[in-house]
Amino acid sequence: MKIAVLAGDGIGPEIMEQALRVLDRLALPGLELTSCDVGGAGYKAHGHPLPPATLAAAKAADAVLFGAVGDPDCDNLERALRPEQAILGLRRELELFANLRPATMFKGLEDMSGLKPEIAGAIDLLIVRELNGDVYFGDKGIRTLDDGRRQGWDMMAYAEDEVRRIAHVGFRAAQGRAKKLCSVDKANVLETSQLWRDVVIETAAEYPDVELSHMYVDNAAMQLVRNPGQFDVVVTGNLFGDILSDQASMCVGSIGLLASASLGAELTQYGTKGLYEPIHGSAPDIAGQGKANPMAMILSLAMMLRHSFSLEAQAVRIEAAVAGALGDGVLGGDLGGNAGTAEIGEAVLARL
Ligand code: NAD
Ligand code: IPM
Ligand code: MN
Question: Model's pTM, two decimal places?
């Protein structure tokens, strides 16, 4: 069971250390871990955010465990060399088009949400974010118009097959949950979204057991705060999914809690090949201080065991240990507590 371990930048290595302690404690037989530089660390050591050896290791692995990338030192490099290109490159190169971002309220944490506890307590949703298309991967540039003004532009586009395959992921996810799928778009303004909506409706014919609804993204942002309990599975495009998932994290309590799985069509002998990472970034403001909450990273490890290695029982064990630590009041600074990165890791280990 080959795992490529890409810790990355900022708090990436700190949170990865805790996730690897948890993995180590499970003492799973047959694991083969390969660590590689990525992001700003990749650029600094090898001149590229996604060095060829890192990409090769990710391709050869059954799963990629990813920390975070992003380094203020690199923000002014040409775009192709910036740390963020590493994660975009991996998603694209490995054709990981389906990003699952679950947001569920942990018992005892209702008071930590920015929402009223009785509203936050009902959160149990899954954002299915398309990850290979949209304005992220279209042509883009900064050009000079005839009258001399500079214009920045990014092409937003979705081909119907790209929408169809993520719609299937959304419908199937809903079948395994409360059987409600909400497709979020901006079809009142964008042609890209009109096609998205048309294709989702076409795909729905294959899933008569799933209740499909549609919502404009501005309303969805509002509903997520007003009544997040109404959502079961949300399927949406790359950009809207990026934004709504950060918002959902705060509804649960903190961005330090939300994990993700990025999956494609490739199957290995153990499960589905995937990349697993917290939804947050490298948090340069707290990097190196031992303050980062490693729970999102540890929960990403659980998702890896579930999806890429079919080790559901071990995944549940990790999730229960994290929930137990939270329930016992082991809270990082992001949740108003004072537990540090290592202390939180320790608390999770103790409850495994
Ligand atoms: P961020 O998610 O890194 O941080 C936002 C805020 O949340 C910060 O105040 C940070 O301290 C806090 N935070 C994030 N994770 C935390 C954790 N585990 N524990 C406690 N607090 C936490 O977003 P940003 O500041 O907008 O971006 C910083 C860098 O990360 C940028 O370079 C950005 O491009 C990159 N980024 C990378 C990824 C990724 O690797 N997948 C995701 C998002 C952002
Ligand atoms: C995320 C991040 C990335 C994204 C960035 C770092 C490219 O924000 O994984 O949510 O926008 O997808
Ligand atoms: Mn994001």
Answer: 0.98
Both structure tokens of 322: 């994290």
Q: What angle do CA 239, 39, 75 make, to 5 degrees?
A: 70
Distance CA 8, CA 267 (A): 26
C-alpha 310 to ligand 2 mean position (Å)? 26
Which residues fall inside 5 Å of ion ligand 3, going by CB?
Answer: 242
pLDDT tens, residue by residue, 43-94: 999 999 999 999 999 999 999 999 999 999 999 999 999 999 999 999 999 9
Task: For residue 332, give the DSSP letter.
Answer: B
Please report how many Cα atoms fall inside a 13 Å half-sphere around the Cα of residue 107, on the Cβ side.
Answer: 9
How many angstroms is it from 102 CA to the middle of ligand 1?
18
Per-residue pLDDT at 53: 98
What mean pLDDT comes out for the span 338-347?
98
pLDDT tens by residue, 147-192? 999 999 999 999 999 999 999 999 999 999 999 999 999 999 999 9
Q: Which residues of 75-111 are buried (b: 16+ CB within 10 A; e: fewer)?
A: eeeeeebbbbbbbbbbbbebebbbbbbbbebbeebbe
282 lines ligand 1 (CB under 6 A): yes
Query: Is 186 annotated as catalytic?
Result: yes
Domains in the chain, CATH or no CATH each: 1-102+256-352 (3.40.718.10), 124-251 (3.40.718.10)
Residue 88 Cβ < 6 Å to ligand 2: yes
Find the Cα–Cα–Cα–Cα dihedral 281, 90, 248, 67, rounded to 10°: -40
22 CB near ligand 1 (under 6 Å): no
Ligand 1 atom nearest 246 alpha carbon: 2
Work out the mean pLDDT of the chain and round it to a whole number: 98
What's the token pair of residue 190? Answer: 């964008």
